[in-house]
Amino acid sequence: MAYSYLAAQRDQLFLMPTSMRDWLEDGHLAWFIIDVVAQLDTTALHKIHPNDGAGRPAYDPEMMCALLLYAYSNALRSSRRIEASCHTDAAYRVIAGGLTPDHATIARFVVDQQDALEGLFVQGLRLCAAAGLVDLSVVALDGTKIGADAALDQNHTAAWIAREVKALLEATIASESTEAPAPPAPLPGVDALSEAATPSGRVARLEAARAVIDAEDAAAAAKAQQNAKAALAEAEQGRKLPGRKPKDPAAALARAQADYAAALTRAQAKQAKREVRIAAAKAAGSLHADRATSPDRALTRAQEALSAAQKAAAQQPAKATQANVTDPDSRIMKTQKCWVQGYNAQAIVTKHQIVLACAVSQNANDVELYEPMITNLTATLTAAGIIDPVEQALADAGYWSEANATIPGPDRLIATLKDYKQRRAARELGTTTGPPPEDATPLDAMEHRLRTPEGAAAYAQRSYTIEPVFGDRKTNRGWTHFRRRGLPAATSEWAFMNLTGNLAKLYKHQRAQLKTATA
């Protein structure tokens, strides 16, 4: 029985279109990216190139920028794969105009134009605002942990780093004594520390990690001294410090000493009042004037806690500070599933998933990032020419503090508990109505607002406002790690990621408008 198939005619001769504009349909993403780059102010991309100079001319920065934007829009970040696509993919060939920049050129462009590419985020936001996509009625703030280009097991102490530096210096001296040929110079624009191909390069990177450890130790010592002064001032007034007990033995000992001093101050005040009462009773001839009193229980408990803290601090030595020798700027971050070596990537998003502001932090705790992100939001909106005020900001319990609830800025709803605990509390305590009581604390006022029908409905928008953005970046596009090392490089890459996300929204919006107009 004969089969009838549509066979591949590989020997068939045909002519390609004579114009590249016939390779892709009119509404293709590549044409959109080219048009977007034409509308951007690319002056910063030309600053590093001289007007004239010896050697081969550089590739057009605007073409390279469009190439990167299109590649990132298709979840492609590898410079080698971008180079391969310039040979085989019609869309990449159209953007590059038939040119084929190699992977080293693409990688150097990303390094050299780091600040310029980061600055394009504001211009992309301006285009989204012009298209009516920036709605400031509700914005949501959140962060996600993104891994660094560094291994979790490469965190070491200053003592380990000192031993490695000594060994590398000895190896360098030994290699110089044998008159070995000098290593080739690194490619222009490529950081020699990130390559670490030579002993001297590895020494410099280890020294950078040791500098991070020294800076963190100094900051920790200064903070501990500041906390000790604050605790002493509270203890002199007989007030016990609020909050949880620290887990670090040295910090726990300082806290126990402050609590004991506060308990002692309160006990002495009570004793002074008692002596006054006894003197008054004796003067009146009371029979109970000499009655014995029981010891102060609070003072006894504080003394026992101090003894336990002293014992724990003596048994457990202070934990040595560590830094990652591959990427000293990165930090150990905890996620829902595991620990990662990375950064805390922050974003403020509209209800249409347009990113208004973004930043990368070394701080794993979100509570200290609320005010900087709101300041960043104001600066970004101003730079983009958006003058409308933000009506309401939403944030989860990781950002809760009384300071964040009361600082100047837009109206906000910050959860005081995790989402499931917040819902359980609302079921148990019931709903409320109207404004909070005038004498309510910031915590009570926020919980009152979150239990009103209006507040609960407003806060419910948070998850489906911000979470889809992180899901798109990390799950759909697979961007779970930064490709380059260092906080400035990660910040630039995060801004470029969100720029392509905003442009994807703009592209879909324009396509939908075109379909509506032609329907």
Task: Please characterize this protein's 3D structure.
With 519 residues, the protein is an alpha/beta fold. The protein folds into 3 domains: 20-112, no CATH class; 128-150 and 329-518, no CATH class; 156-177 and 187-324, no CATH class. It has 18 helices and 8 strands. The strands form 2 sheets. Strands 1, 4, 5, 6, 7 and 8 form a 6-stranded mixed β-sheet that branches. Strands 2-3 form a two-stranded antiparallel sheet. α1 packs across α2 (61-73) and α9 packs parallel to α10. The longest helix is centred in the middle third of the chain and has 38 residues, at 199-236. The protein starts with 28 loop residues before the first helix and ends with a helix. Residues 187-195 have low confidence and may be disordered.
Secondary structure elements and their pairing?
Layout: H1 29-39, H2 61-73, H3 79-88, H4 90-96, H5 103-112, H6 114-130, E1 139-147, E2 155-157, H7 158-177, H8 192-195, H9 199-236, H10 249-284, H11 297-315, E3 322-324, E4 331-334, E5 339-350, E6 355-361, H12 370-383, E7 392-395, H13 402-406, E8 411-414, H14 419-429, H15 442-450, H16 453-459, H17 461-476, H18 487-518
Parallel strand pairs: 1-7, 7-8
Antiparallel strand pairs: 1-5, 2-3, 4-5, 5-6
